[in-house]
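Forum > Structural Biology > Help requests

Title: Can anyone predict the 3D structure of Alkyl hydroperoxide reductase AhpD?

Hi all, first post here. I have the sequence for Alkyl hydroperoxide reductase AhpD but no way to get a structure on my laptop. I'd be grateful if someone could post the structure tokens.
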Amino acid sequence: MSLDALKNDLPDYAKDLKLNLSSLARETDLDDQKKWGTFLASAHAVGEPKTLAALSAAAEEVLSPEAVAAAKAASAIMGMNNVYYRFLHLSKNKEYGSLPAKLRMNVIANPGVDKGDFELWSLAVSAINGCGLCIDSHEAELRKHGLTAAQIQTAVRIAATVNAVAHVVAAEN
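Reply #1:
Sure, ran it for you. Structure tokens for Alkyl hydroperoxide reductase AhpD below:
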């Protein structure tokens, strides 16, 4: 499935989502690797098959195999971390935060792509998964890597749009 086919599959009531997909695909605040890696990581995070197929095809036209693997890895590791760190953040018992996580997270240290790109994809997935602790952590790292507020916001706009598109597609099928 292509990006155009995905947009065409959206019902009329989701016209804004169609328009957002189009404008975000043309977005220039992020270079192509950052932008399409964000699309791919977000699509993997939501996991809806048609959305994932369309955005994977579009991303794989632009991204290197290493970037494709890293975007998927960002989604995978944040799928775990967002649950764990959201629990730490929301739990009234702060003792859990003093315990070692004892979860492997090696890909964060060596993602196989630019660390800033991986952090951006991790932030997008964290926004989808609703982990405030992870959002704050990745946003701070992105600022250290020189990303602007506009660039970070663009990644979150992509995540928000991909999430909404996936929910509409799932509801309509």
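The radius of gyration is 16 Å. The chain has one domain: 3-172.
Shout if anything looks off.
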